[in-house]
Write a structure and sequence with these properties.
Order of helices and strands of chain B: HHHHHHHHHHHHHHHHHHHH
Number of helices of chain A: 15
Radius of gyration of chain B: 26 Å
CATH class of chain B: Mainly Alpha
Number of strands of chain A: 7
CATH architecture of chain B: Orthogonal Bundle
Strand order of the largest sheet of chain A: 4-3-5
Number of domains of chain A: 2
Structural class of chain B: mainly alpha
Shape of chain A: globular
Largest sheet of chain B: none
Radius of gyration of chain A: 23 Å
Number of domains of chain B: 1
Number of helices of chain B: 20
Oligomer: heterodimer
Largest interface: A-B, 75 and 66 residues
Distance between the termini of chain B: 60 Å
Strand content of chain A: 5-15%
Order of helices and strands of chain A: EEHEEHHEHHHHEHEHHHHHHH
Distance between the termini of chain A: 30 Å
Number of strands of chain B: 0
Helix content of chain B: 55-70%
Strand content of chain B: under 5%
Largest sheet of chain A: 3 strands, mixed
Chain lengths: ~425, ~450
Amino acid sequence: MSAETAAPVVPAAHAPIVLEKAIVRSPKAPVILGVFALLALLAAFAFPRTGTTRFGLSTSRDSIQLDPIPVSTQPVVAVIAVLLALLAILAAVIVARGRTGKLPLWLTIVFAVLFVVAFLTWAVADGLLPFTGLLVGALGVSTPLIFGALGGVLSERVGVVNVAIEGQLLFGAFSAALVGVATGSAAAALIAAAVAGMLVSFVLAAFSIKYLVDQVIVGVVLNVLVTGLTTFLAGVIDVDKIPASARFATVPIPLLSEIPVVGPLLFRHSLIVYFMYIAVFAVWFGLNKTRWGLRLRAVGEHPKAADTVGINVGRTRFWNVSLAGAIAGIGGAYLALDAIGLFSKEMTNGAGFIALAAVIFGRWDPVRAVLAALLFGFATSLQNSLSAAGVTAVPKEFLLMLPYLITVLAVAGLVGQVRGPAAAGKPYIKS
Amino acid sequence: MSEKIPGEDQLPTPGQVLPLAPEPQSAQGVEPGQASGTKPADEVPPPPAANRVMREILSSNWLMTLLAIVLALVVASILIVVTDENVQKAAGYFFARPADTFQAIGRSIGGAYYSLFQGAVYNFARPGFVNGIKPLTETLAFAAPLIAAGLGVAVAFRVGLFNIGGRGQILIAAAVAGWISWSFPLPPFIHMLVAVVGALIGGAVWGGLVGFIKARTGAHEVILTIMLNYVALYLIQFLLKTPGALQAPGTSNPKTPPTDPSAVMPTLSDLLTLLNGGTQVGSFRLNVGFILVILATMFVAWLLNRSSTGFRFRAVGENPHAARVAGIDVKWVFVLAMIISGALVGLAGSIQVLGTNTSGFGDGIDAGIGFDAITVALLGRSRPWGVFFSGILFGALKAGGYSIQAGEGIPIDIVVVVQSVIVLFIAAPPLVRAVFRLPAPGSKPKARRPRLTAEVTR
């Protein structure tokens, strides 16, 4: 993220090149943390809620049943609020005095987790919150977002802005349903979804790379096209009843799935979710540790330089955008085959745009994007859990709004510095 | 991941934080002015890619538009034929009686387009001119909000901004117009005008917010508008279920009370009935909104082509770097353009609430107009009267779409497919040229190479 510039002096023949590192100290992050700490303090002392909050840890399918943890609401919220305030002060000190002037990721994550715990304890005063269920639900909501975000990261890092994630998810979902109904085979449906996502990408890539059309226009129009096409086809072809054989069954991993909390959260899912774990790792590893990733990033940052050393910019972009589409398409398959089990019109309902938001909020980095997708999925799942628990302290619309609002703040520079791949969005014309 | 490469940005501006931000790219060839080494070319970098693309879209000709529409209709016909059951049945014994298949195809396409005509222009099956012409008025009624929102998107386009936030702006504007209609008792005509102005302000605020954030922080307007669409949607959903806000009193549905009759836009039937001395004439839904839309088109035509503000808009749209060098306040132009854009989209919202749907609305009041407006603006090449006529074309497709759905059982979403395919083809003139084997503009006509060998003169 930091702006590294080569020293202006021409180095001597064997002298090491000294990189001058600009340290940017921005007070934004500590201020934001401070605002959240203040909110927590307000909740703890200005609007205290008494009673006991119980966190349910076991799901009904667990073999080891744990009792819900009772937590006395007021003291816990107060203690966490004070902790949050201390963390915010620590953040300010780190930013002001630290070596890099940047907030470490762990501090943000610890702060976020503590804040969420405080918020839950406060909101569900005198009630039972199925905590594990909340997390499992969050992973379920996040899965298509993560696939979409991975596709978005790949596509944008290679230099093609991917606004069409929504279309890729939707077409993937439709094709999975279509092939699932036609063949009754889950594997065939999954492949069809990947191919469908790829088809959308083909159009995006062809128009933006060959015909040099503005990538954002193509992306937006593709979303509209896919929405119209899938709704039209769903009206004339029956894709409602996906047979059970075409749906992915839950495959609990032996032993691991019996660990309380972690088991149901991570190891009791269908194959698509396990595939997602692999995909996250593969994209991270591929982007940062392999020749493929280096070339991909080079094309996205400085296509002319990449071209000079013999990388075919157009071809690299085309196939990586296609790969991105295939990944996003699998996310669509999860929606149709796993989460819901049928195709309904416009079933993605903005998930692609949340994935796009995750890409931006995650600063075009696969791991951060996945974390952002998990955060956004958590917000949605939280809304479901709170409505189920009968909590009305926070209107659900505001929780649903959260991912979008955070993204607006992020791109407005209020949350961290957002800067994407240098050449994303620009067609490369070989001269 | 984002190490700065020295010399990559010739002229970094605050507006360049996102990858989407228009930014000149060093690999993009040299502008003609630069090659000759003239002084201004050194100071002013070539316009960003997005602006050049815009110029390409603006400059392609009517033939391309026509061919794009033809291609889109061909695509739609293929879709209709492939999904038609009669065709599928006949194709089952294609080799036994191929004529049947072709007959079924002909009947399928013919039926669809006849239905389209009947639903969008004139219905011969109905008695009398007043009843027969109703489809045409329906077309115009559907076109009115499309044109208004299309004009809004077009104004932003001319400044080099993509306003994808039509949905949010319409929702906010509709909420304001509706709220004014049932909250303040005012005399009939004035009530409508106040509600319309309220909607314009609502849309302008929601759009201007984007321009403001972009001008202040350089955030890209596409991301902002997409995200603000959903913020507006959930905001409206919240207000719709909050008693005392937008929810109709005494109900638990997320729906507003009906628009107050004194704020409803008079329809063509109302006017004709008045002229006819009280006898009901037809049941046209076409309303005063269409006149407002004509006025808006004239205003935008004046604004863009005759006013100094419009000149600044176009200058920024051509090349923001050059515009800044020329002393134009580019940031203020961004804000102002988004305010005007949002207000025009807001007009569409007011037409929806005060004209099209007056019985109370839910969160679907935007009816996809926000996205349709993008296609309308692109098809109209962002020129005011171009947008006007492309809006009427898409209005006709929409009106005809309902008739096709009712008559032929073809889902109305085929219209969306046609629209987006048209825009895709328009955005890529080389593709259309390739399909129809047209020469590229500026390329020399392929003369037959003479077979003669050149005479050696030296």
